């Protein structure tokens, strides 16, 4: 169904903040789990539940990350909020397209989610990483 390359967590993604690293790892696992469910043709009910779980955990993580950035008065806080809002919009788009039965577009959004998360960690989140 898709040639997306699933990524596994590795230490190069670490920002040095244990809760945020845990969140990032969990989000990556959830995206991979969702992709697998779509690829093997899981029921719409199962996929809808996975999307709901991903959306809820994403919102929790964004609150954790934004709270941390506010606590350390990091200058990227507003940019992070914008990035997080864009990601949340894409999850909503993904959910909407799946509800409409548009699997092709849904898989394109799946590619975006996977790529966005890793790129966001490596480019944006590394700006506050503890070395």
From TrEMBL:
Tell me the ranges covered by the Hemerythrin-like domain, including all copies.
16-128
Iron as a keyword of this entry, yes or no, is yes
**Per its UniProt entry, which superkingdom is the organism in?**
Bacteria
Q: Which GO terms describe its molecular function?
A: metal ion binding
Q: Which SUPFAM superfamilies match?
A: Hemerythrin-like
InterPro entries hit by this protein: Hemerythrin, Hemerythrin-like, Hemerythrin-like_sf, Hemerythrin_metal-bd
Alphabetical keyword list: Iron, Metal-binding
Q: Which residues form the signal peptide?
A: none
NCBIfam families named among the record's database cross-references: bact_hemeryth (NF033749), hemeryth_dom (TIGR02481)
Q: Family per UniProt?
A: Belongs to the hemerythrin family.
Q: What is this protein called?
A: Bacteriohemerythrin
Native species: Aminipila terrae
